[in-house]
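Lab notebook: predicted structure, single chain.

Context: the supervisor wants predicted structures on file for every construct in the current expression panel, including those that have not yet been purified. This is the next one on the list. No modifications to the sequence; it matches the entry in the shared construct table.
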Amino acid sequence: MSLTFTDTTYVWTGGYATRLVPKEAGFRWDGNARHWWTTDWSAAHKLRAYADEPALAALDTDTEEAAHVMDESRALVPSRPWDETWNTWNPDLTPMPFQQAGVQFLHDHKNALVGDEMGLGKTVQALLLLNSLPSDKQKVLIICPASLKLNWEIEFHRWVKNHDDYIINIMGGGRDWSYFDDVVIINPQLLKKHHYNLREATWDVMIVDECHYFKNPGAQRTLHLFGRKYKKDPSKTIQPIKATRSIFLTGTPILNRPEELFSVVSNLAPEVFPSWWQFVHRYCGAFKGRFGLDTSGATNLEELQAKLRQSVMIRRRKADVLTDLPAKRRQVIEVPAPPDLATALSSEKEWWKARQKMLTDLRASVELAKTSDTDEEYIEAVKCLREGMAAAFKEMAKLRQQIAIAKVPLVLDHLTNILETQEKVVVFTHHHAVTEALMDGLEVEKICAVKLDGRDELEVRHNAVENFQNDPDVRVFVGGIKAAGVGLTLTAASHVLFAEMDWTPANLSQAEDRCHRIGQTDSVLVQHIVLEASLDAYMANKVVEKQKICDKALDDGIMVIPEPVVPDPDPVEAVSSTKEAIAVEAEKFVSATLRESILSQLRTLSAYCDGARQLDGMGFSKVDADIGHRLAACVSLSPKQAALGARLTHKYRRQLNDETVSTQ
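Prediction complete. Output recorded below exactly as produced.
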């Protein structure tokens, strides 16, 4: 066994018996050369004990270079003297030391992922890169959310030293492609429409803001940015947009789980992340689940963070670069529901109970359908479960909107109390109807306010922000969590009030950081107004709890942001297996005596069962109760039913006697 090095490749030499050694280290198999190999020094470093002299020398060099890049990815000051010619044309606009370090990082890397926390000036760093390039004029493509297109044009004129020489085209403003402009600013939704023209050029610099929007490799916007090859039908191939340099920006590199990184990082650093299959097995703990390959997990996170920092990512925290920036404080304020909301809350509770029972029954039906001899019954059960969940969430959305509108007077009352001691407040909503109700209420109270939601044009959005920031008479900013939650600066306020919730913690953090960013000198207080004992109260407490995890994510070796909070306090913990596995296990239960024993044990557990939904040592729990009771009610069990029943008896074996018959 040995580890050798040639050119840029580490090669493992060993027999068949040692194949797991390089495989577990992250090496790849070359079927033609018949050996394991890698260009990743961190994978090779794990087998350093087997390295020959050339390999050891290469590892030492690579380790030193990796350490240097790691330092740069966290740099708070420039690693070399700052080149003053890279500054903006305005002497009053001097980048901060950590921003100078960021520009140097971008200058030194052809492709880069700027993952600085929200509010640290990622836009500034990306634009200052243009000042550092040899040519006086670059061909620049900027892809950003529609609400930020005008902001990017304004910032371009602020930070690019020869900005007057550029022709800027904000796509969607009525202009066509009769000629190529120097700078094109476009939102992701228009990439498909203008893809042919965009891919005809080779852009000097492509800047993709809020790049987590491209996490889904199958989405149209992702396909028309990165392209896709179709080997079976080349006519369907989509060409990527080409750029000499690609700068991707996001304050939340991972919204929910590591797999969402792959689309971006595999295009920024294809040599480091060449294979989706390898990525999900290494960093997502991929395994074969009931509906195919499950890639929702998170594994080897410290290694993933190191690889990102050693290749393309620079990320700094507010706590590191702005020690004087106060931390955020979060509160969930539960207010008693007034009598006129009693009916709505009662409907919410009744719906909740009905939904729980319906979904429990449907989930149990799916598990039991796995014991059927036909595929049709299982397919129909899965279809019913999916339709039931979709209908439940649709109904829930209606109820949430009704309650949110009815809650507006309470929000207004709390808001007016805040304004007695605070000059300005930012309020976030989800539904347009709630935004309008708040604006109407503020008008009645003679409180000057501006609003911004997804229906507003760019000029209206820009004016709303400018008026709130600069006009002392404008005291309230009412914005949609999605439409106003990214890219805006609302530091005139240090108080954020959420009139409605979003289930994704990262979306709330994005919205909060419109106030908690550069320029803020006060402590930012974030409050969620919810009705006591309501579904929103449950969600708010869960989301705030998960936001604490979000605050630590990406900085403590944990490269994952929690999942969206799905309002289900009773997650399914059913005993489960695939339909195929049940069929295989059924072969163990051809004996009628063994099947009768399993049935007897199920009936014993059913007799113990107190109907509770908690795992408390009293019979079944949660969805298992429905499955167990249905099986126990059978006159006799088929081999497949016995196989599923055996899984249950094994799970609850501590409640049975020692003579339990279970092959699990």
